[in-house]
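Example S7 (structure tokens).
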């Protein structure tokens, strides 16, 4: 019995040793996975040079290429919510994308978000939108939130536009804009200033902000007593 048990243990060990993590594919663009209502799981990538969203089947064969209209002088920055029956109800693939322009003289960024269908129809243009989120509100439907910023003045303008959507997002976690935005510094990238959000529900009277360079060296140590701090 001991011998049989030893053989079984060695067999399990052999199987564990030979279980490997394998590279399936290396792509040259930023790529994510989406779950489309009718067409199932797809990879989608962002081609910044050619202003395109390329969508691949799970075997990496090209399924669709969607040209993205980006104004002259702007750079494609993000693609999100590649979907069927979220922004439309006609079954066509649609998505939201963001692009930006950097003012080299005054050193600030201008952002904009658009929603586009695969046939090239631009359904929404949101000037100044630097963040975008989809949020389910239960019986009240699905909402699309964009946070608007104008960095040409200081203090800069902050606003929000809320859109109601005809469909629902499938296969991705719906994230409330406030919860997600409070994790990240913005604008990013930035050459002039950055806002670093601090959780509003913190029970502490003060928070210590530590900033490190890319080598891990601590370069700033600041005690905060406000929910947000603008660093210049």
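Recovered sequence:
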């Amino acid at each position: 019995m001991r011998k049989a048990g030893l053989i079984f243990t060695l067999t399990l060990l052999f199987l564990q040793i030979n279980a490997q993590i394998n590279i399936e594919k290396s792509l040259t663009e930023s790529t994510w996975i989406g779950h489309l209502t009718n067409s199932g799981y797809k990879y989608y990538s962002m081609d910044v040079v050619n202003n395109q969203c390329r969508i691949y089947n799970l075997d990496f064969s090209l399924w669709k290429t969607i040209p993205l209209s980006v104004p002259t002088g702007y750079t494609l920055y993000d693609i999100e919510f590649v979907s069927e029956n979220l922004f439309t109800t006609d079954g066509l693939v649609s998505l939201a994308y963001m692009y930006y322009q950097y003012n080299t003289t005054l050193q600030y960024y201008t952002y904009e978000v658009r929603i586009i269908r695969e046939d090239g129809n631009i359904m929404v243009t949101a000037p100044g939108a630097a963040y975008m989120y989809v949020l389910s509100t239960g019986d009240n439907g699905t909402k699309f939130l964009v946070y608007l910023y104008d960095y040409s003045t200081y203090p800069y303008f902050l606003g929000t536009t809320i859109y109601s959507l005809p469909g629902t997002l499938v296969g991705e976690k719906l994230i409330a804009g406030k919860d997600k935005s409070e994790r990240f510094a913005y604008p990013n990238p930035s050459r002039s200033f950055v806002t670093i959000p601090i959780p509003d529900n913190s029970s502490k009277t003060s928070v210590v902000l530590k900033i490190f360079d890319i080598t891990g060296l601590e370069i700033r140590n600041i005690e905060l007593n406000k929910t947000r701090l603008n660093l210049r």
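Notes on this example. Residues 9 and 46 are 47 Å apart (CA to CA).
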